[in-house]
Amino acid sequence: MSAPFIERLRERPLLGDGAMGTMLYARGVPLDACFDVLNVNEPKIVQGIHAEYIQAGADWVETNTFGANRFKLGVHGLAAQVREINLRGVKLARDVRETLGRDIFVLGSIGPLGKYLAPLGSITPEEARAAFREQAEGLLEGGVDAFVVETFSDLQELRLAVEAVRAITDLPVIASVAFTQDHVTFLGSTPAEVTRTLRELPIQGLGANCSVGSSTLYEVLEQMLPEAGGLPVSIQPNAGLPSRIGERLIYVSSPAYMAEYAARMIGAGARLVGGCCGTTADHIRAMREAVDRHVPSRDGRTAAPRRARVEREAPALITTAAPTLLQRRLEAGEFLVTVELDPPRGHNIEKLVQGAKLLKERGVEIVDINDGSLGRVRMSVLPTAILVREATGLDINMHFTCRDRNLMGIQADVLGAHALDIRNILAMTGDPPRGGDYVNATAVFDVDAIGLIRILTEMNEGRDATGNSVGEPTAFCVGAALDPAAADPSREMERFLAKAEAGARWCQTQPIYDLEVLERFFARTRPPIPVVVGLLPLHSSRHAEFLHNEVPGITIPDAVRGRMREAGERGLRVGIETAQELVRHLRGRYAGAYLMPSFGRFEVVAEVLDALQ
Predict the structure, then answer these.
(1) Is the same domain home to 344 and 279?
(2) pLDDT digits (tens, 9 = 90+) for 138-159
(3) How confident is the model over 216-242, as pLDDT tens digits?
(4) Residue range(s) defining the domain that contains residue 78
(5) Quick check: is 303 in a domain?
(6) 591 and 449, same structural domain?
(7) pLDDT per residue as tens digits for the range 580-591
(8) Helices 449-460/489-502 angle, 10° precision
């Protein structure tokens, strides 16, 4: 069975990554340092470079192991770490691939030994073969998809490297040679001679890389293709020849220039293109666009250019997700209206969907999905959110509590929500189980709402709770809960400000029945984030007394409860009118209204919304 890398290569030409050393040098690593040991000592730097190339559109990345053989590592006193450095090099690249979720390949890079073979030098063929095999075993153990034996000038040394790899695995091997500006290797072999020699080896591709720029390697390509015998040809030029400016090495080829040549190389017959010394993620991004313009898709049409996923001036990854509807409303200063939906007690959501459709007919665009409020068992929040959105097209604000999930579960669930494009999250600590039907259930509470907001904010910066990369940053719009009628308003304000500092972009209050409650709460401190005011229409005097006396977080002023008592049988009508008055007064003073139906009476909320017409 053919290897996946070869199968993909048969389908379409592939784009590789660019320089590793150039990128490390740009990050302050000295040119005379051992780049390979950074796999162990500074893994995040290496992974950051892999991530940039993958985000730029590379179909494969090479491991940071070009010089990770016993002879080159021995110069730095690291000869005993060959296996570890190579294995770690593969795992770093694979971890980035997994984090970013891109279907790309990891190629194990093997370069020359750095010492001449006998009789010119002192290294015997047996010693060379052993060194290459030792390196290849580490790469294989790490889990490479293929090998690239690259930047060789001595074809005998290259042969020994290929034999060492082939002795331990049948994974694909690409053999690549370095040429001079005179179109010969440093030992005088022409491209045609090199190609005829290489095609006799047990390899799956051959080509040229490094040393010179695009124009020279394009001419080398033209000479290799007729002799390749059907083997795929790989071309990875430098970004021109380097010049020293002060203490820095500068490569002159622009991304546009290299992209133009990449397209020409594909047109001439190259199956693998990429970059070597001096090339950066900007070069690969430009090459990606050029390659996509010239590569037909499986149905024969020209592939659409991929959108660049990283801004050219910013090395850090950024999210490609557009702001949510909720976020756009808040940022535009438009009055936000959202309605709460409780997941069902069972697994049938028909009533919930019908209620959501009614709300949409009345102009609602965003609904909140509760997460186990009052510590009672209901359908889990994420599936409910997905089912409601699929049935109605409404935007979702998903409540998310810390009660039922440990730190790992929290992060797994919110990443899953983001993948499903549920990105409005109201971060809540959660009601304890003892308040519901399962008084003996164990609550987790690894973090509280403030901690959850910090986790979501970190993910928006591309990191999980331990600082590890999550790949492309998330784009959560994070909200917080607020109880302005709390028994200890000073502590509630302290927590509210901490939530805003942790990254909350707006807050939603518990049900309010008198705006003076809010005015008193914010008398000394203006809200640092928009406030969406909670409204729960009252149905009767009994309903008002129950909420006030038995439901945590809800306080109904004496005057409102008195009004409900006087209403008698007109309690529902008075409750609706009271809520409508509050909605009218909210406009121009607060960011929006968050309406909560009681007893599944969506028509009551729909009538309250008439006040907005």
Answers:
(1) no
(2) 999 999 999 999 999 999 999 9
(3) 999 999 999 999 999 999 999 999 876
(4) 4-294
(5) no
(6) yes
(7) 999 999 988 999
(8) 10
Nearest to residue 212, comparing CAs of 187, 247, 245, 186?
Answer: 186
Q: Per the structure block, which two tokens stand in for 84? A: 């570890």
Nearest Cα neighbor of 388 from 339, 431, 427, 350 is: 350
Task: Verify that 486 and 595 share a domain, yes or no.
Answer: yes
Looking at the domain assignment, is residue 318 inside a domain?
no
129-154 burial, b at 16+ Cβ within 10 Å, e below that, comes to: bebbbbbbbbbbebebbbbbbbbbbb
How buried is 217 (Cβ within 10 angstroms: 0-12 exposed, 13-18 middle, 19+ buried)?
buried
Q: HSE (CB half, 13 Å, CA atoms) of 583? A: 27
Are 145 and 254 found together in one domain?
A: yes
Residue where a domain terminates, one of 276, 294, 312: 294
Q: What is the pLDDT of residue 309?
A: 37
Rg for the chain (alpha carbons), in Å?
Answer: 32
Q: Please tell me the least confidently modeled range out of 105-119, 135-149, 229-243, 265-279.
A: 229-243
Q: Are residues 247 and 345 in the same domain?
A: no
Distance, CA of 499 to CA of 526 (rounded, Å): 15
Q: What is the CATH number of the domain that holds 8?
A: 3.20.20.330
With tokens 């048969």, the residue in question is: 10
- 388, 485: one domain: yes
Task: Report the C-alpha gap between 337 and 335 in whole angstroms.
Answer: 7
Helix (H, G, I), strand (E, B) or coil at 395: strand
Q: What is the Cα–Cα distance from 58 to 56, expressed in whole angstroms?
A: 6
The secondary structure of 478-530 as a DSSP string is: EEEEE-TT-SSHHHHHHHHHHHHHHT--EEEEEE-S-HHHHHHHTSSS--SS-
Q: Please give the Cα distance from 294 to 304 (Å, whole number).
A: 10
Contacts of 232 (CB under 8 A, 6+ apart): 9, 174, 204, 205, 206, 271, 272
Q: Is the peptide bond before 119 cis (omega within 30 degrees of 0)?
A: yes
Q: Is the pLDDT reported for residue 298 higher than 60?
A: no
Rounded mean pLDDT, 356-376: 88
User: Is residue 481 in some structural domain?
Assistant: yes
Residue of 172, 165, 142, 169 whose CA lies nearest to 63: 142
CB atoms within 10 A of CB 20: 25
Domain count, the chain: 2
Decide if 183 is inside a domain: yes
Q: Which two tokens stand for residue 65?
A: 């192991």
Cα distance between residue 286 and residue 276, in whole Å: 15
> Which of 323, 413, 320 lies closest to 372, judged by CA?
413
The CA distance from 465 to 447, in Å, is 11
* pTM given for the model: 0.68
CB of 172 within 8 A of CB of 132?
A: no
